[in-house]
Amino acid sequence: MSTEEKGKISVETENIFPIIKKWLYSEKDIFLRELVSNASDAITKLKKVSLSEEFEGGSDYRIDLKFNKEDRILTIEDNGIGMTTEEVKKYINQIAFSGATDFAKKYQNSENKAEIIGHFGLGFYSSFMVSKKVTIETKSYRKDEPAVLWESESGTDFTITKSEKSSRGTKISLYLDSDSGEYLDKWKLKELIKKYCDFLPVGIFVEDEKANREKPLWSEEPSKVKSEEYKDFYSYLFPFSGDSLFHIHLNVDYPFRLQGILYFPKLTHELDASKNGIKLFCNHVFVSENANELIPQFLTILKGTIDIPDLPLNVSRSYLQTDPLVKKISNHIIKKVCDKLTEDFKKNREAYEKNWEDISLFVKYGALTDEKFYESMKDFIIFKNSSGTYSTIQEYLDKNKEKNQNKIFYANETEMNSVYMDLLMSQGLEALLVDSKIDSHLIQHLEMKNPEAKFQRVDAELTDHIVDKDSKSEVVNENNETESDRIVKMFKAVLPAEGVEVKTEALKSSDVPCIILLPEFMRRMTEMNSMLNREDNKSILKSHTILVNIKSPLVKNALKTFEGVNQEKGKKLAKVIYDLALLSAKIMDEKEISEFTKRNVELLTDFLN
Q: What's the rounded Cα separation, in Å, for the pair 273 and 271?
């Protein structure tokens, strides 16, 4: 090699370097990721060489970042494989791609600015995003190869000379420009190393202080990792997030390479489910916080890490949306989640039920939006029931087969103490409790998938088990009216003229004077409207059926008063009975509750007088 060699990078760099320097300016932190990951690659290559060759310099591998504030120089040095003069020319001077002009034009209007870095050997040239001059001092691990010094002030013109470097490896010195003084700060550098290079399998030191964790737990054999290690790793990745519910360790070599650890966090609010906590890595190098294309929407509840060696280091969103590998990985993750939940259901039902409150939202959403997930999980969707236990749909049907006639009674959990539930449970019947807005969609989905099973709200209609079929036939009076006829007449005298139908039945329980019945379709419609915040939600419920219990002592007394000397007091009693039913059905608005209170005060005053 001559004393000095000069030249130009063998590409139309006048098109490339303005792109690097200008377009990526807002994302210039990634230069450090590129240079440090290159240094790690150099050490990895030397480790492979060590399996078959001997070399000098020891095996205490490390990467060092140091800076000189006065001269504004930042250095990144490794003791890896190093480069010969010919290798410098090959890997630094010849950017290995054809059609540079077309390439530059392609990215000229690109919104994915980081996409260019890492393509075609450009990773090293990200250093010119922050530097007015860059030097490379490198010495190959090969014993007789001389050290080389490469220098460039523009990224286009360079010089190569001999170097005085005596140790194996590569040292890159960045002469930082006037806008990049922030990288002459130890804490800033340590922060970036932790963000991008925390899990590179070599020690990274900033001013001789260890800056990275180094050990990526996901690359360990799952059988060798202790539960406490998983717990500690979750706390490290997501401080102040509490404990996770459980985890899934991904470790795939074929037909694609994939490693990672996915955690199920405890949710404090339904909105937490929309927060993506997956950190995407490529060969232990951090790539992105956003793995939406890799994770189905219903699994965005998950937190953790995914490492995909076959993805580009600077993977773009558009790449993830079109790469067939991504779809395979997504399907594999869904399968692993299903496998984990199925295993827990079968082997540790108690723990599964304990975690259900936290995982039910994403399981239900997954069942609604992903057919394969539904098919895998349909037998493991559970509901709390009025008996205080959990059951699947099939378990509920099997248990209540004789009484329910394939009907699945359900109610909001807030209605557990309602008159409807009291009536149902008094006859030994059970209801499933739903407590999430998504449940109304899920019920319709389950009905579609299981035509033989019909869901019925407890306040939609009365089951035969609640009605007293053995009640004696009613006697008619001189006007050819039964007691039921007269009760209907009394209630019609105080009810709205339209929208309300009055019926009577003899219920097995005499404790309930009156209940409101709403058709199943109408109740579901109101719940749908509630999700859409429709203002007309309450008005839909104004059309309903009032079912009066003719065995109720309160109803009988009201009728006696109505037909006696104080018809107005009888009307007031009937109105209060109706009001109580509306209140129990949660149909009253604030104005109606206020009027109900006034009527009760008046009625009590009348009785006291």
A: 5
Name the DSSP class of 476: P
- Residue 544's region, left for phi above 0, alpha for psi from -120 to 50, else beta, is beta
Beta strands 244-252; 258-265: pairing state: antiparallel
DSSP conformation letters of 533-575: T-TTHHHHTTSEEEEEETT-HHHHHHHHHHHTT-HHHHHHHHH
Per residue in 74-105, pLDDT (tens digit) is: 999 999 999 999 999 888 876 533 333 444 45
Separation of alpha carbons 555 and 573, rounded Å: 8
Only one residue has tokens 């009201």, namely: 558
Kindly report the backbone phi and psi dihedral angles of residue 250, in degrees, each rounded to the nearest multiple of 5, phi listed first. Answer: -95, 130
H-helix segments, 154-245: 186-197, 227-237
CA-CA distance, 609 to 606, in Å (whole number)?
5
Best CA proximity match to 167, nearest among 60, 269, 68: 60
The answer, yes or no, to whether residue 6 has pLDDT greater than 70, is: yes
| 186 secondary structure, DSSP code | H
DSSP 345-371: HHH-HHHHHHHHHHHHHHHHHHHHH-H
Look up residue 491 and give its amino acid: F
Residue type (1 letter), 99: G
Residues whose CB falls within 8 Å of the CB of residue 199, separated by 6 or more in sequence, listed in order: 212, 213, 214, 215, 216, 281, 284, 285, 286
HEC assignment per residue over 227-247 = HHHHHHHHHHHCCCCCCEEEE
Q: Helix, strand, or coil here: 49?
A: helix
Let me know: does 117 contact 126? Beta carbons within 8 Å: yes
Structural contact between residues 522 and 565, judged by C-beta atoms closer than 8 angstroms: no
The answer to whether the CB of 88 falls within 8 A of the CB of 160 is yes
What confidence score (pLDDT) does residue 33 get? Answer: 92
Nearest to 313 by CA among 7, 34, 609, 594: 34
Q: Are 62 and 154 in contact (CB under 8 A)?
A: no
DSSP conformational letter for 88: H
Q: How many CB atoms lie within 10 A of CB 481?
A: 14
* Contact between 229 and 263 (Cβ < 8 Å): no
DSSP state of 467: B
- In this structure, how many other beta carbons lie within 10 angstroms of the beta carbon of residue 158? 22
Cis peptide bond prior to 255, omega within 30° of 0:
yes
Q: Helix or strand or coil: residue 285?
A: strand
Number of residues assigned to the chain = 609
Pick left, alpha or beta for residue 221 (phi over 0 → left; psi -120 to 50 → alpha; otherwise beta).
beta
pLDDT tens for residues 307-346? 988 776 555 555 566 677 888 888 899 999 999 999 999 9
